[in-house]
Specification:
It comes from Melittangium boletus DSM 14713. One of its GO terms (biological process) is methylation. InterPro entries: SAM-dependent_MTases_sf (IPR029063). This is Methyltransferase. It is a single chain. This protein is α/β, with parallel strands linked by helices. The protein has one domain: Rossmann fold. The protein contains ten helices and eleven strands. The strands form two sheets. A seven-stranded mixed β-sheet has the order 6-5-4-7-8-11-10, sandwiched between helices. The chain has a four-stranded antiparallel β-sheet with strand order 1-2-3-9, with no helix packed on it. It is globular. The relative contact order is 0.16. The structure holds zinc ion. The site of zinc ion has 8 residues, from loops.
């Protein structure tokens, strides 16, 4: 099979559903998406998931908004977030931009809508009117879930105003935890690797990029990379909830895990992060 990014040969990965490009390092998963299917939804405790992720996400969203304000055109006013989920980024960005979100998950999007945030239920770009254009389009932990990623990138190009900015916040295949999960999988422990890909969740990851192969994809679709950075993947805030979310764990064991990870946080900052943010500018026609 040819790599969807660079066209070179791809190789079987660690499991039957996983492939990797021998040339650019892009990784893909043949996992199926089942958003809005009630049965699968019940396997995820949305409330716990929300609490466990909120502190880290909100902190990262403030950082991303800062980058957006520095790197978008000074005249940028309208911002579209694809996959706006609980609306946390929309809330962060609303004081600075005229915001709109699109969310395919009706349960999650419906709740955000009920909180009074501007969200349309549906998919990008179908949920937009034919004439709608934006100065900034952002995907927070979303682009890696979209099966036909090239079409999504083309749609971004079409839906951005001249000089428009595309911001992608996504997991990195160079991240320390992702690489560690691969080593563990090779040693026979596949749990962490499955979790990295969000296997068996309603919307698993379909792609794993690094900054270089992501840049190659975007450059081939009329974008130039203007800025890239890493975000902290682990934070003390919400860590205890994140750990307890994993399953029914003995409280004492949980406490030692918590203290153990807390102690390694300064060290982890020196390693490649599992979260990257890349900012692209629409190339003039
Ligand atoms: Zn490739």
């Amino acid at each position: 099979m040819a790599c969807t990014i660079c066209g070179n040969k791809t190789y079987p990965g660690l499991f039957s559903w996983h492939t990797q490009c021998g040339s650019c390092g892009y990784e893909a998963a043949a996992l199926s998406v089942a958003i809005n299917q009630q049965q699968l939804h019940e396997t995820v405790n949305e409330v716990e998931r929300e609490v466990s992720l909120k502190a880290l996400r909100q902190d990262n969203f403030r950082t991303i908004l800062g980058h957006a304000r520095r790197h978008a055109a000074p005249t940028a006013r309208t911002l579209l977030e694809v996959g706006s989920a609980h609306g946390w980024f929309l809330e962060t960005a609303a004081p600075h931009f005229d915001v709109l979100g699109i969310e395919p998950d009706e349960t999650v999007g419906g709740k955000t809508l009920a909180r009074g945030l501007p969200v349309r239920l549906g998919y990008f770009p179908e949920a937009l009117r034919p004439d709608e254009r934006f100065d900034i389009i952002i995907f927070n932990d979303v682009i890696e879930h979209i099966p036909d990623i090239r079409s999504a990138v083309k749609a971004c190009h079409e839906r951005l105003n001249p000089n428009g900015t595309l911001i992608l916040n996504l997991p990195s295949s160079r991240g320390f935890f992702y690489r560690l999960s691969k080593i563990l999988a090779q040693a026979g422990l596949h749990g962490p690797f499955d979790r990295m890909w969000q296997k068996d969740l309603p919307s698993p990851h379909i792609h794993y990029f690094n900054t270089d192969n992501l840049k190659a994809l975007l450059e081939s679709e009329g974008f130039d990379l203007t800025f890239s950075t890493e975000l902290e993947a682990v934070k003390a805030a919400g860590l205890r909830e994140r750990l307890s979310h994993v399953g029914h764990v003995n409280p004492l064991k949980l406490y030692f895990q918590y203290v153990g990870i807390l102690g390694t946080l300064p060290f982890l900052r020196l390693l490649p992060s599992d979260i990257i943010v890349c900012i692209f500018r629409k190339r003039p026609a």
